[in-house]
Amino acid sequence: VWSPEGKHISFVIRSTLHEDVDEWLISPDGSNLRKVGVGGNAAWSGDGRWLYYCVTKDALVDELKKVSPEGGPQVDVRLDEASAPAVAPDGTGVYFLRYLTNVNDSPDIEVYAARPDNGPEQLLARIPGSRVPAWQMVHPVISPDGKWLAITLTDGGVTSIWALPTTGGPLRQLTDFGQRRTFIARRVSWCADSKFIFASL
């Protein structure tokens, strides 16, 4: 995941020491390779000053941390089970997922907003686990204007892109592939003016 100003790229490497992944940073020219810590699901603050990522605790709960790409200690953001962060471009808050108890192979997911990062949370949406198969990684991506969260959901073997207003409201379907089997890999990307979304199918 590129930082907004283009100075850093964050990525994960499967650890040889534990079951989780490790979060790493590198400069676009291949220099300054360094490990940030244990964790994944990274997202950048709008100004590129902070890299947010999740650390799994006790193999069950994800805690949200942030760290400066210039170095320094990690900062606790949310310790109350928060994963797959999306950071408001203006720095006013963070959006995250919470996985509910898994009773039917894939757990239901709740989407929350917290303003500020460590402030009270607001439930924006609840997504049935049937729309998020166990093999699908879900990570909302915020639009540059801060108005939408793009999220991929699967219905009957067809993955589509949906948009959730960051202020709350119903999900809006953006793509429709009919009955054609489609899988959208990983997370999507917004163009700078928030008018288009790019995805790998």
**Assembly annotation:** single chain
> Helix-strand pattern, N to C?
EEEEEEEEEEEEEEEEE
The averaged pLDDT comes out at 90
Strand order of the largest sheet: 4-5-6-7
Protein model, in words:
The protein is mainly β and 201 residues long. Helix content is 0%, strand content 47%. It has no helices and 17 strands. It has strands spanning 9-14, 21-26, 34-38, 40-44, 51-57, 61-67, 75-78, 83-87, 94-99, 109-114, 121-127, 141-142, 148-155, 158-165, 172-173, 185-190, 197-200. The chain has a 4-stranded antiparallel sheet, with no helix packed on it. It is globular, with a radius of gyration of 16 Å. The two termini are 18 Å apart. 31% of the residues are buried.
Tags for this entry?
17 strands; mainly beta; 47% strand; 201 residues; four-stranded antiparallel β-sheet
What is the structure about, briefly put?
The chain has 201 residues and is mainly β. The protein has strands spanning 9-14, 21-26, 34-38, 40-44, 51-57, 61-67, 75-78, 83-87, 94-99, 109-114, 121-127, 141-142, 148-155, 158-165, 172-173, 185-190, 197-200. It has no helices and 17 strands.
List the helices and strands and how they pair.
Layout: E1 9-14, E2 21-26, E3 34-38, E4 40-44, E5 51-57, E6 61-67, E7 75-78, E8 83-87, E9 94-99, E10 109-114, E11 121-127, E12 141-142, E13 148-155, E14 158-165, E15 172-173, E16 185-190, E17 197-200
Antiparallel strand pairs: 1-2, 2-3, 4-5, 5-6, 6-7, 8-9, 9-10, 10-11, 12-13, 13-14, 14-15, 16-17
